[in-house]
Amino acid sequence: MTSTTLELLQKYSVPGPRYTSYPTAPYFHTGFGEADWAEALTAPAPDRGLSLYAHIPFCDSLCYYCGCNMVATRDYSKTQPYLVALEHEMARTAQLVDSNRVAHQLHWGGGTPTYLNPDDIRRLMAMMRKYFTLAPDAEISCEVDPRELTFEHLAALREVGFNRLSFGVQDMDPNVQQAVNRIQSEFLIRQVLDWSRELGFSSINLDLIVGLPKQTVDSFRRTLERVSMWAPDRLAVFSYAHVPWLKKHQNLINEAELPDSATRFGLQQAVNEMLGAAGYVNIGLDHFARPEDELVCAQQNKTLWRNFQGYTTHKDSDILAFGVSSISQTADVYMQNDKNLKRYQDRVAETGLAVERGYKLTRDDQIRRDAITRVMCDLELDYTAFGREWNIAFTDYFADALADLRPLADDGLVNIAPDRISVTPAGRLFLRNIGMCFDRYLKEAACEQPRYSRTA
Ligand code: SF4
Hints:
By secondary structure, the protein is an alpha/beta fold. Helices cover 40% and strands 21% of the residues. It has two domains: 25-360, Aldolase class I (TIM Barrel, Alpha-Beta Barrel); 363-444, Arc Repressor Mutant, subunit A (Orthogonal Bundle), CATH 1.10.10. A nine-stranded mixed beta sheet has the order 9-10-8-7-6-5-4-1-13, with helices on both faces. The protein has a three-stranded antiparallel beta sheet with strand order 14-15-16, covered by helices on one side. β7 (203-210), α8 and β8 (234-239) form a beta-alpha-beta unit. α3 (79-96) packs parallel to α4 (118-131). The longest helix has 18 residues, at 79-96. The two termini are 15 Å apart.
């Protein structure tokens, strides 16, 4: 690494949002209630499809780095009242949403969706199909933990229509696995990948994490070598967010073992270099896909979008998310369910919904969200096209953002031309910092900002 790059890294490694939403989740508020959510669900949206999400919070054991809303338990009976609550929530939501609307995407996340046994996998999908219409060519995907997984789980997923899987691999080094309490052998991963291919899943994603304790550039290069050999269709390489003030169990991680910023940068460089050499294209922040993948095509066509599930080709879909802590989204509303399992179940039993907080976007929010998303997806922003779409004079409207971008331009992270902003190859590592220049809330609340993870 050159000293200039290290300097940039140190300069721009600041707490900042990942922009899976704008405004970001800390700005959702409890003044938004069930009546507001019901109004959002009943609002006519003839041109918008649906994207369905179910959150299964249960896990067999706790990974110390975990940032999800999860419940580590060996007591399977806890799933039963939860499935009942999910059905109530879907039934109530379906009463409010136009029944002609079709879902083009369905995703199960967690926790560990495959904590459910094969019969309950069938039961949950039957519920979703009972209340909502799925397009025949819908993308139906599930997050899978390779540990404790059987062939029967995967066969049940395939039988009920899943066509995409996403496996949590994270890191294959035994020392790292031990430091984060997630032990999974190479044999295990190969076996579940072989099963998935045998069953005919059309797309397989692997998740990796950089920034875990005891990771070194050499050890992670070995993980990347193996992963390239397994040839998944997509890879998501997340940056570990160490936020023990939000996730108390992250205190189980020995901070002294976390890689320093130079190592983190080396890890990121190894990712870009080795996945690039293996034929993957980097999609924005943390996703990689084969050149023929629809995410790559969407990026080229400027139709890529970013939401709570990462990068997606379904920009004009409303996300209906079911389950504890899950976040739904319409064109101008975010809504998050109660984050406590018991309260979620009690509230759904009472009213069919469990709204904890939400946010209705103003027009300015929508404009800024679009600008941040365009930068993070397209890696450029054309003033004329953007201004036409929102009926604004771009350089006037975003005079503050352009001024804030100037130092980043001086450091070679963005080019500011008379008609557009574009992210340079060096700037791709700093997309979050670039997005932050458009964030009105960061500017307004400089003294009392929510505490985010670091950007680099
Ligand atoms: S399996 Fe996933 S959700 Fe469960 S503890 Fe590990 S990282 Fe968290």
